[in-house]
Amino acid sequence: MRRSTWVGLAMLLPTILLLGTFCYVPFVSALRMSLERNDGLGPAQFVGLENFRDLARDGAFRYSLFVLCILVGIGTLLATVFPLLAAKAISNVTSEWARYAYRVIFTIPMIVPGIVTLLVWKNLYATDGAINRLLELVGLASLAGSWLGDPSRVLMAILFIGFPWASGVGLLIYLAGFDGIDQSLYEAAELDGVGPVGLFLEIEVPLLRPHVRLISLNALLAGIQSYEAVLVLTDGGPGNRSLLPALHLFHHAFQFQQLGYAAAIGVVLFVVSLSLTIVTMRLLRNTVEA
Amino acid sequence: MNHWLAGLILVLAIALRSDAARADADVPAGARIVMVSYFRELLDPWREAAIEFKKQTGIEVVVQSAPYQGWETWVRTMFLGRMMPEVIVVEGGMADDLGRRGLVLKLNGELDQPNPFDAGQPWREAFLPSALEEARDAIGDCYATPYSLYGIGVFYNRTQFEQAGVRPPATFAEWMDVSAKLKQSGFTPMMIGVRPTDAQSVWLAQAILEAFLRVHVGEVNLVHDSGWTFDPTNRSGPARERIDLTERWIAFEKGTIDPARAPEFAETARMLKAFSAYWHPDFLSISGWQEVSSRFARAETSQMLAGTWFVLEFQKLQEALRVAAPGRVADWGVFRVPPIGAHPLLRAGDVADLAGVRTRMMVTRQAEPWRERAGIRWLQFLTSRGVAQDVWRHSAIGDLPAMRDVRPNGNVAALTPRPGATAFRIAEFDGYDELGVHEFWSHWQEYLGDHIDLPTFLQRLSASQRGSLVRLMRMMPDRVDQALIERELPMGGSAR
Out of A148, A237, A254, whose CB is closest to B76? Predict the structure, then answer.
């Protein structure tokens, strides 16, 4: 091997070691733990696939998968589409100063700590909170009620957090994408008489597909793994109606001391994440190639 | 002047205390242990006590605080990470769970030994007998010493009561009438969050269930001292008797304490459901007791269940409110949770027994034995008469001391537990282990939120509690008397 290759490998070594220590070793250890009855304190007992069998019979876990589908499915759509529309709107602004101002306005929410955002929304959702008061003011008092305590509304309420879903990294990525589109394409479209809708759907969106793929995958994986919002707002309630698999994992690991069972949930979540990532990438790759 | 004199006597008493309290021989020089607690009101006086303890024993105790929110998760995480401090202070039944897992020391033997910091009298003599009894688990093992007692009552807004033309009720039925009138007058009669972070609904349910099931104590407590009989009207009857895991399993399988078959569970759930019509309508999303108490302080509700610990805290809240918004300071009072009265299912007992041990202190298992011994010495020091009285005198604690001859602070007379009124805890309304309790909250929310009916709730609760008991029996096979089970359940259970 050439000297430069050795130097390259040596420079990669710290990263490989850190990745191995903090990502792959815990992953292998979780795989092993999923086959054990393990409370983390006493000796672990090998139980084969018992944890997975229990998981298949666990009604709360099955329901959490349904909740995951709803929250991640709709959440990914919102996180992908709305920043795209916002970026399109900003990129159409001709004044440089106004574009800059809009970018700042849409970016500022990113620096607000997530927990603060959640607590603000929690107050908005209170029965005597701003949302219900607003509904009463505009004559829609019949729609007012408990948002986080009503099983039929709780998922909608969680999804609505972050409205209008247009700020964040997604917006910046799309803006960079719009900036990267060759100006000559716009001129050609104008010559061909393409309207604004056609320009957006036929030219801009296809060219932004790599960005769409990145943002949607990011939203998908974050949605599968995260549970903080649900933990803070409802703790999975009322009656498991907002329970997510990751929160179920957290409960079993740190409240019920069932580390083996929690690891089994983690393994299932990993398989789900991997499958969805492959499917999403294939879908988006096919559409790009088409 | 009297305070000065008392203080002087206390200082002299501590200074002249027996030298037997010196550290054990194998405690290394410069020994240092850690105690962690979330009881903020006690931290400063404990730190003061730690200075004196070091003078007497050479052992340094670092008193650390942890946040109340997520405390149990914090403790479990520390155990998982093998980072437990030598002494931890908890509330509720967590001590039993940790004890069953062998993570904290069993103190049975230590309690019989002399306390070198208390003139050599047996350590157990420091505690109120009823508090010590309650601090034991189902089969009589003691993993935690009691430290403070709580009493629970209904805190009410006198101004709103006067405006609604009602007075504190004498019976449970009257309480419903009072709540109805408060609602008619435009007030929110009661603020309860039906979530694990607010125990009010379970306190009520547990107290009612205990009263209903009290008549069955004799048939459930199968293993007892010879000559023991149970008189349901004797409030101190259960003392020194326990319902152990085997007895619970047998009673459950016979149906006596099975939610799906015992009518007492159905009646308790029905009563709470009827009462929930007077709770704040968002009871499924109210975040917890802290939100409830702050809303009560802001006069957003007429009543809430709270305990002795809240008295001094509430007085402080009111002082702050007097400065910030003088017009919003409500006149408040406390009444005991009213008895059920002439309810057909009730044979004896009432629902006023919402009282018991709150703060418990445990010594964790350590790799180095001297750490465990130092932890025990520290607990003996803290619970010795002079030190405990000093802590109570210099802290803003509303809870009552679990130690004899230590005077409480604050105006907590209305909530003072009556000595000897220990509950048998014949059955649990929520669950028998952490997972069972977690499942209970889910079913309870569904039922109170009108999303499942009563039979479904009871069926689910039954399955959940059965699962809890099975897990406990698997975890502690040595505590299961198989011969007794076979004798009592010859058909394999389900006799009732």
Answer: A254
Identify each DSSP E strand in A177-261 by its residue range: none
Extended strands (E) in chain A: 36-37, 45-46
Q: Do B101 and A258 touch (CB under 8 A)?
A: no
The residue with greater pLDDT, A41 or A260, is A260
DSSP 8-state class, residue B368:
S
Contacts of B193 (CB under 8 A, 6+ apart): B200, B283, B285, B286, B287, B288, B289, B291, B292
Residue A159 CB coordination number (10 Å): 16
The Cβ-side half-sphere exposure at B410, using a 13 Å CA radius, reads 25
φ, ψ at B37 (rounded to 5°): -150, 155
Confirm if B64 and B35 have CB atoms less than 8 A apart. Answer: yes
**Interior angle at CA B429, CA B425 and CA B434, nearest 5:** 95
Report which of B435, B437, B446, B397 is spatially closest to residue B196, judged by C-alpha positions. B437
Q: What is the CB neighbour count within 10 angstroms for residue B372?
A: 19
Query: Which contiguous run of DSSP H or E holds residue B334?
Result: strand B332-335
The C-alpha atoms of residue B205 and residue B271 are separated, in whole angstroms, by 9
Task: Identify whether the C-beta of residue A285 lies closer than 8 Å to the C-beta of residue A206.
Answer: no
A34 CA to centre of own chain: 25
Interchain CB contacts (distance < 8 Å): A and B: 82
Could you give the CA distance from residue A120 to residue A114 in angstroms, rounded to a whole number?
Answer: 10
| Cis amide prior to A238 (ω within 30 degrees) | yes
- A257-271, B19-33, B410-424, range with the lowest pLDDT: B410-424
- Whether residue A42 lies within 8 A of chain B, CB to CB, comes out as yes
Mean pLDDT over residues A222-238, rounded?
A: 90
A59 touches chain B (CB under 8 A): no
Q: Do A238 and B102 touch (CB under 8 A)?
A: no
pTM recorded for the entire structure: 0.80
Q: Which amino acid belongs to residue A127?
A: T
C-alpha to C-alpha distance for B143 and B367, rounded to whole angstroms: 18
Binary contact (B101, A125; C-beta < 8 A): no
Q: State the best of B69, B78, B98, B284 to mutate against chain A, taking most chain A CBs within 10 Å.
A: B284
Q: Could B442 and A237 be called an inter-chain contact, meaning their C-beta atoms sit closer than 8 Å?
A: yes
Q: Is B181 helix (H, G, I), strand (E, B) or coil?
A: helix
What's the CA gap between B404 and B395, in Å, rounded? 18
Q: If we measure between CA atoms, which residue out of B400, B447, B345 comes closest to residue B152? A: B400
CB B153 within 8 A of CB B305: yes
Give the span between the Cα atoms of A216 and A212, in whole angstroms: 6
Residue A150's nearest CA partner among A115, A126, A124 is A126
Cα of B96 to nearest chain A Cα, Å: 14
- Residue B121 CA to its chain's centroid (Å): 27
- The pLDDT of residue B20 is 42
Q: Is B119 left (phi over 0), alpha (psi -120 to 50) or beta?
A: left
- B22-54: buried (b, 16+ CB within 10 Å) or exposed (e) per residue? ebeeebeeebebbbbbbbebbbebbebbbebbe
Mean pLDDT across chain B: 84
Using an 8 Å Cβ cutoff, are A71 and A244 in contact? Answer: yes
Cβ contact B156:B334 at 8 Å? yes
Mean pLDDT value of segment A127-138: 90
Say which DSSP state B34 is in: E
Which of A217, A233, A214 lies closest to A121, judged by CA? A233
Residue A114's CB is within 10 A of a number of other CB atoms, namely 13
Give bridge partners of residue B292 from the DSSP assignment.
none
B423/B405 Cα distance (integer angstroms): 23
- Helix H, strand E, coil C: the string for A216-261 is HHHHHHHHHHCCHHHHHHCCCCCCCCCCCHHHHHHHHHHCCCCHHH
